[in-house]
Design goal:
Strand content: 5-15%
Shape: globular
Radius of gyration: 25 Å
Strand order of the largest sheet: 1-2
Structural class: mainly alpha
Order of helices and strands: HHHHHHEEHHHEEEE
Number of helices: 9
Number of strands: 6
């Protein structure tokens, strides 16, 4: 019933428009459109017949149309049918909209490309050295501040070492470049997972010559083998971050902070999907102090005062087990001090779901 209600809720939301930047129609040769993995000529221009086959396949959704596409190398297309997927929780991908990509001839894409090239040149500079007088960072700051259009974050109107290569979302320029969620060990059951990663050695640069670029653009495997650092490293520079996202998987970085202290430990519910019974005094609060949206398959508030939004504080998370109306909660920094003793079916009375926050 919960899933049916959630599906009906999502179905009732009008679908947004999905405009593109019109570059595909503007340039018949498709040179300004993504074509990696398809065959290209000696100048790097895509084979328009194969590109048009890809458009037909995307429009029809027929697997046979995808199989009819001739690729340029041995690498396969990655998730070409992902747009046809439906999510069992939350909104479907086509129910969400993003702004069109900047046009190829626009100043915005020029600013993005320049920033990307400076990222490549600074990939081996440690984040903690951005404020120092290294050869690359001052040049990058000077050039980015000279651009006619640059959408990156600024500090007092200027791109600085504190804002360089960061996002413009609220809070993204506060504190060190790397979050503690990517540095501290992660409790995982009886194990403790270190956040050191296998990364490549400094100077192991790729796709710096046209022939190599064309080979990769056609979908061929790299001709040069990877050179890895013999010592596992914490994330410390752009190269490490690139290697990290090269091998991550969906929800990789968001699952680990919920693993346990010093982060919030989410106590598992020993029943079915969390759902509040009509008489249970259990509810779910997010860190902002607001309940989850309707249709998200999480418990709704049934009783108790509204918590004010918290700043830099943890808000205890409570789950209500549907079958027994038992309440469970999670804490940060002080494991065990309020951990639930009653288990479903044990006959013990559950503790109170009183509002509580921990620093």
């Amino acid at each position: 019933m919960v899933r049916v209600e959630a599906a009906n809720f999502q179905r009732g939301i009008p679908l947004p428009g999905h405009p593109d930047n019109a570059d595909e129609a503007r340039y018949p040769s498709r040179f300004a459109s993504y074509s990696k993995g398809l065959p290209h000529d000696g100048l790097g221009d895509v084979n328009t017949q194969e590109y048009d086959k890809l458009l037909v396949a995307i429009s029809s959704g027929n697997p046979a149309d995808f199989e009819a596409i001739t690729l340029g190398g041995t690498r396969m297309l990655v998730n070409p049918q992902s747009a046809y997927a439906y999510q069992l929780e939350g909104a479907d991908s086509h129910a969400l909209a993003i702004a069109p990509a900047p046009t190829f001839a626009g100043l915005e894409i020029a600013g993005e490309m320049e920033e990307l090239y400076w990222m490549a040149l600074a990939r081996d500079v440690s984040f903690q050295d951005y404020a120092a007088s290294t050869p690359v960072i001052p040049d990058a700051l000077q050039r980015l501040n000279q651009l006619g259009v640059f959408r990156g974050p600024r500090e007092n109107g200027q791109v600085t070492a504190q804002t360089l290569f960061r996002d413009s979302l609220p809070g993204s320029t506060v504190g060190p470049f790397i979050s503690q969620f990517l540095l501290l060990d992660v409790p995982y059951g009886a194990q403790t997972v270190s956040q050191r990663i296998r990364t490549r050695v400094a100077g192991d640069d790729r796709v710096s010559a046209f022939d190599e670029w064309l080979r990769i653009q056609n979908g061929q495997s790299p001709a040069q083998g990877e050179t890895f650092d013999a010592t596992p490293r914490y994330l410390r520079n752009g190269r490490d971050l690139a290697e990290f996202v090269h091998h991550d998987f969906p929800l990789h970085t968001t699952r680990r902070p919920a693993g346990g202290p010093p982060w919030r430990r989410l106590t598992a519910c020993w029943a079915t999907r969390p759902r509040c019974s009509p008489t249970a005094k259990c509810w779910w609060w997010e860190e902002t102090g607001t309940p989850r949206s309707p249709g998200s398959s999480t418990p709704r508030r049934t009783a108790g005062p509204r918590l004010p939004p918290q700043t830099n504080r943890w808000v205890s998370t409570r789950r209500c087990c549907w079958r027994t109306a038992r309440c469970w909660w999670a804490e940060a920094h002080s494991p065990g001090s309020m951990s639930p003793k009653a288990r479903p079916g044990s006959g013990a009375k559950p503790r109170s779901c009183a509002a509580r926050t921990t620093p």
